[in-house]
Structures are given as structure tokens and as C-alpha cells.
UniProtKB/TrEMBL annotation:
<dbReference type="InterPro" id="IPR043917">
    <property type="entry name" value="DUF5753"/>
</dbReference>
<feature type="domain" description="HTH cro/C1-type">
    <location>
        <begin position="10"/>
        <end position="64"/>
    </location>
</feature>
<dbReference type="Pfam" id="PF19054">
    <property type="entry name" value="DUF5753"/>
</dbReference>
<dbReference type="InterPro" id="IPR010982">
    <property type="entry name" value="Lambda_DNA-bd_dom_sf"/>
</dbReference>
<protein>
    <submittedName>
        <fullName>Helix-turn-helix transcriptional regulator</fullName>
    </submittedName>
</protein>
<dbReference type="InterPro" id="IPR001387">
    <property type="entry name" value="Cro/C1-type_HTH"/>
</dbReference>
<dbReference type="Pfam" id="PF13560">
    <property type="entry name" value="HTH_31"/>
</dbReference>
């Protein structure tokens, strides 16, 4: 999926530069067949090669260059010593699918998610993340838990800074009712949801049990949207042992429509924050 999307965008940039694939190959000292393989997504490409092509095409926009770098695997460094993603230090601990997810998340401009069982990772407290990790990995060694919790907390940096990620989450009421880690941990997590929900770029919508009967139309999912390039949107479905990435326009339309429907059935953002605070107050 990534190779095809990256290849398509590199082809578009080449065409904007008014270069043929043969001319582009000559500009960077490659065979034309390598350009063709990259643009069709039939072969992988290093971040250093992407940078070389973008230089040849006169692409100087740092935001676009960073996004295309993420598509080719931003967790690694190229031969010129390009800056590694912060998660590089955890590359031996995290599965490739999780590294892919993190790199996409770090470059996305908007994230829409439906959660039916747990609080989204970007909104978790350390204590809640610790309890979820222990449960998911069947009580792993404490040092592994702490490393994974540090990764989850570091991920939340996308909600801060000059251009924070726009996050819209639909939460089934069950997410708020499950006492993950015990009552005290859950109380802290609910307080954190209300506090984070006050950020202008975070919108929370609770689906009360009275309205969530239709939630069976789908399971949890995430929709990533990216700046500048609309057709890079992707849907991610998590399974027990892997993640599934959907890129077809029909899939994107279906999940976008499902999210819109679910949000329409959910409480407003303001009423959702009151609802969460009410649960915490009655705990």
C-alpha cells in the first residue's frame, strides 16, 4: 500500500517537473527501469533515494518531503544520516506493523477513530497504558511493559506543537465503563479524557448504551488523513496478531460514511465531556 501511494506521488512530482522517466533517471544517475519500479510500487525505496528524486524534481516543501519520507519507512536513516524517527530506539521491541502505524500517525494531519473496548492510545494515561499492556501481552516482564508505555506516551506528542494532529474519537460507553487497572486507575483516565477533550483540536463523542445498538455495523478502526495529498488517506483495522490497511476508494468511502453515521448518533462533544465527568463522579 505504501509503495504504491509513494510511487504514485513521486510520479506526479516528476510530471509536475516536466521530466520523462528517462530524464529523471539521467538526473539521478539511475537506469530508467528503477524509476519505473519505484513509481509502480513494485520495489521498495530508501529515504535517501526519495530525497534524491525530490531534489531532482525541485521539491523543497519540508512538509511534503517529510510525508513522503514517512511513506517509505521513516523509522530508518538514510546514508546521509537523515534524522531518525524518535521510535527508532525501540525498533527491536516493536513489531513492524506498529512501527508503520506510528510513522503514519506522526505525519497525519487528521485522525478519526472508533473505539469499542479501550481508550485510544493517544488519550491514555501512563497507568491505564500500563494496565492495558499487561493484559494484552499476558503479564510480560516489567521492563518490557515500561518501554512500551514510554512509546505510547511519546506517541502523544502529535497532539502538541505548532501543528497538532486533529483527533476525533467516537467512544462506545463500554470504553468508559471497563475498570481497566482498577477503580483508581480508571478514575484518573476519565479525568484525563475530560482534560484532553478541552484541547481545541480534540473532539470526543460518546455513544451511550442506549444509542450504540447499531455499532455492530463495524468494529474499531482508524482513518488517517494527510496534509496536501487527499488520496493518501488510509483505514487501519487492528486484529489480534496484525493490522490491515485499506486504501481502495470504496473502502475509504464506506468507513468515512460509517464514522459520520456513528458520530451523528453519538452525544455532542460538550455533552460527551459532561457524560464522562458524570461517570467519574458516580464511580
Amino acid at each position: 500500500m505504501r509503495r504504491r501511494k509513494l510511487g504514485g506521488e513521486l510520479r506526479r512530482q516528476r510530471e509536475l517537473a516536466k521530466l520523462t522517466s528517462l530524464e529523471a533517471a539521467h538526473a539521478v544517475g539511475w537506469h530508467q527501469s528503477k524509476i519505473s519500479r519505484i513509481e509502480t510500487g513494485s520495489s521498495g525505496v530508501k529515504s535517501s533515494d526519495v530525497a534524491l528524486l525530490l531534489d531532482a524534481y525541485g521539491v523543497s516543501d519540508p512538509e511534503l518531503r517529510a510525508l513522503l519520507g514517512a511513506l517509505c519507512g521513516a523509522g530508518t536513516a538514510d546514508a546521509e544520516g537523515a534524522r531518525r524517527g524518535w521510535w527508532y530506539a525501540y525498533r527491536n521491541l516493536l513489531p513492524p506493523a506498529y512501527l508503520d502505524f506510528i510513522s503514519l500517525e506522526s505525519e497525519a494531519s487528521r485522525l478519526r477513530t472508533l473505539e469499542t473496548t479501550v481508550v485510544p492510545g493517544l488519550l491514555q494515561t501512563p497507568a491505564y497504558a500500563r494496565a492495558v499492556t499487561r493484559a494484552a501481552l499476558n503479564d510480560p516482564p516489567p521492563e518490557q511493559v515500561e518501554k512500551l508505555v514510554r512509546v505510547r506516551m511519546a506517541r502523544q506528542s502529535v497532539l502538541r506543537g505548532d501543528r497538532p494532529l486533529e483527533l476525533c474519537a467516537v467512544l462506545d460507553e463500554a470504553v468508559l465503563r471497563h475498570e481497566v487497572g482498577g477503580r483508581e486507575v480508571m478514575a484518573g483516565q476519565l479525568r484525563h479524557l475530560v482534560e484532553t477533550g478541552s484541547l481545541r483540536h480534540v473532539r470526543l463523542h460518546v455513544l451511550p448504551f442506549s444509542r450504540s445498538g447499531h455499532i455492530g455495523i463495524t468494529g474499531p478502526f482508524v482513518i488517517f488523513s494527510f496534509p496536501r495529498i487527499a488520496d493518501l488517506d488510509v483505514v487501519v483495522l487492528d486484529h489480534l496478531t496484525s493490522s490491515l490497511y485499506l486504501e481502495r476508494k470504496e473502502d475509504l468511502r464506506a468507513y468515512a460514511a460509517a464514522f459520520t453515521t456513528l458520530r451523528a448518533h453519538a452525544l455532542s462533544h460538550e455533552n460527551s465531556l459532561d457524560f464522562i465527568a458524570g461517570i467519574n463522579g458516580g464511580a
